TrEMBL record:
Entries under PROSITE patterns matching the protein: ABC_TRANSPORTER_1, ABC_TRANSPORTER_2
Protein's UniProt name: ABC transporter
GO cellular component, one term: plasma membrane
Residues covered by the ABC transporter domain: 357-589
Keyword terms: ATP-binding, Cell membrane, Membrane, Nucleotide-binding, Transmembrane, Transmembrane helix, Transport
GO MF, one example: L-isoleucine transmembrane transporter activity
Keyword field contains Ribosomal protein: no
CDD domains: ABC_Mj1267_LivG_branched, TM_PBP1_LivM_like
Organism per entry: Cohaesibacter celericrescens
PANTHER family: AMINO ACID ABC TRANSPORTER ATP-BINDING PROTEIN, CONSERVED COMPONENT OF ABC TRANSPORTER FOR NATURAL AMINO ACIDS-RELATED
One Pfam family recorded for the sequence: BPD_transp_2
InterPro entries named in the record: AAA+_ATPase, ABC_AA/LPS_Transport, ABC_transp_permease, ABC_transporter-like_ATP-bd, ABC_transporter-like_CS, BCA_ABC_TP_C, LivM-like, P-loop_NTPase
Subcellular localization(s) per the UniProt record: Cell membrane
Family of this protein: Belongs to the ABC transporter superfamily.
Amino acid sequence: MLVTSGRQLIFSVFAIVVLALLASVVAWYMGPASQRILVVFFVSLIAVVAIGVYSGNSGILSFGHVSFMAIGAYASSLLTVPAMMKAATLPKLPEWLASTEMGLLPAIVIALLFTALIAVVTGVIFGKLEGSAATIATLGLLIITHGVIIGWRDVTRGSGSFFGVPRETTLVVAMVGAVVALVVARLYRDSISGLKLRASRENAIAASAVGVNIRRERLIAWVLSAMLMALSGALMAHFLGAFSPKSFYFTVTFHLLAMLIVGGMTTVTGAIAGSVLITIVTEILRHLEGGFSLGFIDVPQIFGTTQIGIALLILFAMFKKSDGLLGLKEWEERLIKFTHPAVSQQSLGAVEPAGFLTAQGMTMRFGGLTAVDKVDFLLKPGEIVGLIGPNGSGKTTLLNMLSGVLEASEGTFKIGDIVLDGVPSHFIAEHGIARTFQNIRLFGHLSVYQNVLVAALSTNGGEHAHGRTQSALARMGMSQFADMEAGTLSYGDQRRVEIARALACQPSLLFLDEPAAGMNREETDALMDMLRSLTKDLGIGILLVDHDLKLINQLCDRISVLNEGKLIAQGTPAEIRKNPAVIEAYLGTSSEQHQ
Ligand SMILES: Nc1ncnc2c1ncn2[C@@H]1O[C@H](COP(=O)(O)OP(=O)(O)OP(=O)(O)O)[C@@H](O)[C@H]1O
């Protein structure tokens, strides 16, 4: 299922096809040299968008994708090289492979499936890593694959040239391959999976907290991009007719990443622009590399001019346009307004009868510091419980444990009968607990609508996702901001979007970490009315962390008080106001002044 307007996609696909056809016709008229350049461009473009599918959407730069290109090249070549040639050049091949002689299309299909298999295995392993650790792991993949290819002589001819590959990648074949890859990448970007992955790139903790299973989404992108890389590798092999392990190593990795980084990693438009630019620059510099004359001065041969030129372009992009020349939006997203589907709004009440949240002995240690110490806690649907305490008393840490953002050092907690100890936060969101964050965690470069839609799509099986999204935005008074980039909103509006996003999960329990921070008195009062209506109309239970004691006193049915990680009091606002331990630890000498 797609999450963008059909009009944008139709324009995008139309433009891709027209541009590819136009370029092919022009190259056809210009002769064989231009055709060769265009074939290499198309095949490289497939690889660039392929890396973009994973790196652009997940935000994890991959140095290892060229491995899949190599696997595609060797696999499809082994399946297509004539049996006689294999008998002469690869005498130790297993019999079934030695006698196999396929056409290009079936060979590519099998090569892609084989690559997908390897990608599933490596993706599951790498999925455990985050950020730069994941990037370094992909570098390891490149080096290991290269080593395996060199070492597996009986099948690959080791470091020698693998030749005799049928040259079947014509201009038309390369063009069709590129169009397919571009359309797949474009559709993936605005698929449900693509949107969830882009949300996780913006903020992984928040994405998980609204129900996104980040590992699963990364794996999907990894496998899809690996298959596109294999397509590129296979087409390259069948264009060159001969290649070696060196053809799929650092140099090509550098070129492809340069195209992606310079153009813009997150969009298909950026991948195309970067590929065009780097191809043109490479062609120009290749001609100049051997030395040239400016008329009054002869410039001598400078070894590595092309690489230096490309590296300078990367540096320029990093300094001046860190999101790439084309930025973070597709061209059609800039030109064509997204119209939200007209759907009936949905109730935001929990689908299933909600259970109590019960927590016992919750403890969190950070090294020698015990931030939360054996805290018991209860939250029922339909009630509002305040959690207060001086700065650093452990409120946010407790909330993080109960929402799966942090794994407790000790203690157990459950919603209804479902034990939630040690489960990831997307699992907790799927079981009816939604939250907001003290330091706002929106998906800054996604629209307000997309921010909320991600949550709706990731919970309750994604049912009526647009209806829930529109209901949540309407309830928070944010419908008119739906198309704005979330990161551009004012502080107070961002907090409202965060609450709308949490509501779209149809939670039975809602944790709010300082929701009134950054709001003026009027806005805070409006927020109070809204929170009351959530408990009254929808039966949602709210856990409210805030330093605004007026808000807490007026709104909460019960209050729990933490001090230095320990629960020092629980009771109604009236009881808490009179509690001597609270007065001493938190309220100072007089409780009245805080009412
Ligand atoms: N990831 C962490 N690593 C180490 N120490 C941490 C971490 N998170 C919190 N702490 C420490 O745990 C203690 C409790 O912090 P926490 O943020 O939960 O308090 P809080 O009551 O929410 O404070 P505030 O009202 O200022 O938000 C503090 O001493 C804090 O420095």
